[in-house]
Amino acid sequence: MNKTPRIATRSAASSDQLLAFVQYLRGKKIPVSPADTLDAIHVAELLGYENKKQLKNGLAATLAKSQHELSVFDTAFEHYFQARPAKPSATQPPHKQGEQTGQTPDQASPTAPSVLEGTPDPLDGLRGNALFDALERHDETALSIAIETAAAEAKVEDISLFTQRGQYVRKILDALGDAALREAAIELEQIEPAAFEAVQALREQLRERVRDRVERAYLIHASAKTEDLLDESLSKMKLGNVDHSHLARLKRLMDRMAKKLAARHGRRKRRFRRGKLHVGETVRRAIPTDGIPFYPRWRKVEHRRPQIMAICDVSGSVASYAKFLLMFLYALQDVLPRTRSFAFSAALGEVSDLFARLPVEEAVERVNLKYGGATDYGRALADFSALALAEVNTATTVIILGDARNNQADPRLDLLAEIKARSKRVIWLNPESTRLWGTGDSEMLRVKRQCHVAHECNNLKQLERIIDKLLSDKR
Fold first, then answer.
1. How far apart are CA 169 and CA 178, in angstroms?
2. Given the DSSP bridges, would you call strands 348-350 and 453-456 parallel, antiparallel or unpaired?
3. Which CATH number does 305-474 carry?
4. Which of 8, 60, 214, 305 has the largest count of CB atoms under 10 Å?
5. How far apart are CA 304 and CA 174, in angstroms?
6. In what order do the strands lie in the sheet with 348-350?
7. Tens-digit pLDDT profile for residues 133-187
């Protein structure tokens, strides 16, 4: 018999839930130390869990240490402790459920296959399964609590080797009740291909979240390992999963990589005095000697200095990746002096001046505060075209970092095609796994056709390899 999925209810607020919330905050890049956690538990015991406003104010005073952290904390608290929506009746048709929320049937269940009126929905048999319902509704709160509960049951804190990730991912998925979804997918594969694809997409999303949780657990509990082993693991870890306590180490590792690349690519080229013969100038200089070219003239080859334009999506889903890309590029100013940076979520603006006058880390924080928000690639590309398209030429490499998820809006691929036509190359770096490209609202499969290069890039090792190749081509 399959285990019951570990989906917690809102009335089950407890100290265990508070510990899960602390992990949730760390995932939102709010640093919470063990001492802060103990203080938060003490505050929650004094205030109780019934009055949410009072609890929120008490925890904010303990866990948020800056205005930016307070803003992130407020949003995280509302999402985590919000009231759970009532589960739809299992007997209610799917199109009625969509009408209750003011949505069309397709909007109500974006992952579900289309069903003709009067035809049974093949996914009805799974509805009522708490895990499937949470995945289908994109209930972030329920999924976060469920994964933390399953992680505790799987004793993920015992992870000691990087190679154990798969083992713990499987344990957590089993504790969540993924077996029921797996069996349903097997049954649907032959009889309902569309429903099979829908279930598999949800399972892949769940697996990705669990994998992220296991990676974060590994970083937390790997401090006893040797320095070299941790550095190697850190360079292969998703940048979005790096715990705040490891940022200083990651920055040192990034600086070391940047120095290595600068040493490799910063050597001056050998200068040659001669180039291709300039026939016209040679003949003109030979007139006084009756056409005998005593003074050959050589063509001067003008080497245009390469220019990098980095366009970074700093919306919530990819902000941490943009931060590390910008830090890495500006650590290479000796070999990439002509770097211009642009940031956007919807509206796009140039942020090069911030990096010219502020430390890189502070500049990145200001960029995230100013340009963070909902994503609109179409508007961002239009703004870039107005600001800088005229300066894009055959010496320009345009690096775009983003997940290409455009909330169903027009991504303006015509503008991306024009940038490609003008530039030396367009490189798109997507922090999402290639398995997720084209799923949901992802435009990545269409986007990559308008780029010279499109790579999955979510860790420091991948980023180093891509920049190394860029610098090699530059030479």
1. 11
2. unpaired
3. 3.40.50.410
4. 214
5. 58
6. 348-350, 339-344, 307-313, 396-401, 425-430, 453-456
7. 888 888 887 888 888 888 888 888 788 777 888 899 999 999 998 888 888 888 8
